[in-house]
């Protein structure tokens, strides 16, 4: 009885080991080969540049708005000074 149980349990371990998922890599690149490729680096660089340009455009818009507000305030102050005289 005991030997039959041991034999059945050892079979299930062998069967389980046979069906476990395995990774196979082609070539010697191994993990991270996509990140090391030249095309990926160029694409990533292009995305970073595009993001930086977009942020700069947004920043410039904000600065232009602030400049317009200050110019309007200066204009109003000049007009109020002229009226007082």
From TrEMBL:
Any one GO cellular component localisation term in the record: mitochondrion
InterPro entries: ATPase_inhibitor_mt
Location of region: Disordered: 26-51
Coiled-coil portions: 53-83
Keywords assigned by UniProt, alphabetized: Coiled coil, Mitochondrion
Domain of life per record: Eukaryota
Pfam family name, one: IATP
Similarity annotation: Belongs to the ATPase inhibitor family.
Protein name per its UniProtKB record: ATPase inhibitor, mitochondrial
Organism: Sphaerobolus stellatus (strain SS14)
